[in-house]
From TrEMBL:
Keywords: Cell membrane, Heme biosynthesis, Membrane, Transferase, Transmembrane, Transmembrane helix. It is found in: Cell membrane. It catalyses: heme b + (2E,6E)-farnesyl diphosphate + H2O = Fe(II)-heme o + diphosphate. Its main location: membrane. It is a multi-pass membrane protein. This is Protoheme IX farnesyltransferase. It comes from Variibacter gotjawalensis.
Length: 312
């Protein structure tokens, strides 16, 4: 039944095409909200890396990372157009809304992918370009085409794609890797499940209708809430590792401690919701704060880097 509804939705998507795409529609294909977080974490990775980089080269690196992230988002929308047409929160995306065809989105995404990787490789270095190429491939192929529709652990494994930007930023500046970008990768990797599942709890019905085996659909609310708590228990001390390894100062350490405590409290509330609480209130609170938590950690690194530069 799900297969039939998905196919029907896909056909309806194509029939609804009205040819009225504008620049805003193509920009929407790039998932700009996701892209902004990608650029920010990549920028922090680039700034905290040792050494120096010419401002033009640094800007080019960030631009290529942004375009590459947008390309991955565009390819995701191309492949998931059938699912997007079913789910309420995605029905207004350019393809389901009939503004852009799937073929146009595919061509746009592939063009941006090649452009971003080749430009990064020619103007910055090969390692950062290879990491960007792998990230696009991982998100568009491994996560979107395989994991998302085949396993309830899709967001856990697929979260690696969103964790690579600070590593790419670091590699763009240094041409190599170190323990610090790996720690930043791990923080984002373990942050992704509680962040995403907190929202997925409220969207379980939509995922079920679309045939996507998200954890709340396959394992139920109780298991999902427990998994959110367990991942947050791992995340909170992991967020402290840059400080413990001497790669961050007290501003970061204090931010990680306070943010980790709040994350643990909100995850506990998700695990043990009050009987009189509105449905999914705690999940939405955790989802919202998790964005602030990640932003605050990376912003603290940036502030400390600026303070060190000013002191010199």
């Amino acid at each position: 039944m799900t297969e039939l509804s998905t196919t029907a939705a896909s056909e309806e998507t194509q029939l609804a095409y009205d040819g009225g795409a504008d620049v805003a529609d193509y920009f929407a294909l790039l998932k700009p909200r996701v892209m902004s977080l990608v650029v920010f974490t990549a920028f922090v990775g680039l700034m905290v890396a040792p050494g120096s980089i010419h401002p033009v080269i640094g800007f080019t690196a960030l631009l290529c990372i942004a375009v590459g992230a947008g390309a991955a988002g565009c390819l995701n929308m191309w492949y998931d157009a059938d699912i997007d047409a079913i789910m309420t929160r995605t029905q207004k995306r350019p393809i389901p809304a009939g503004k852009v065809t799937r073929g146009e989105a595919l061509g746009f995404g592939l063009t941006l992918s090649v452009f971003s990787v080749v430009t990064l490789g020619l103007t910055v270095n090969v390692l950062s370009a290879a990491l960007l190429a792998f990230t696009i491939f991982f998100y568009a192929v491994v996560y979107t085409m395989w994991l998302k529709r085949s396993t309830a652990q899709n967001i856990v494994i697929g979260g690696a794609a969103g964790a690579f930007p600070p590593v790419i930023g670091w590699a763009a500046k240094t041409g190599g890797l170190d323990i610090e970008p790996i720690l930043l990768f791990l923080i984002i990797f373990f942050w992704t499940p509680p962040h995403f599942w907190a929202l997925a709890l409220a969207r379980a019905g939509e995922y079920a209708r679309a045939g996507v085996p998200m954890l709340p659909v396959i394992a139920g609310d109780r298991v999902t809430r427990l998994q959110i708590l367990l991942y947050t228990i791992l995340l909170a001390p992991l967020g402290m590792t840059p400080f413990w390894f001497g790669r961050a100062g007290w501003i970061y350490g204090a931010t990680a401690i306070v943010g980790g405590i709040v994350m643990l409290y909100l995850a506990w509330c998700v695990w043990r919701p009050r009987a009189d609480a509105p449905p999914h209130r705690d999940g939405y609170r955790l989802f919202g704060f998790s964005i602030l938590y990640l932003f605050a950690l990376f912003a603290a690194l940036l502030v400390e880097q600026g303070a060190r530069a000013f002191a010199l």
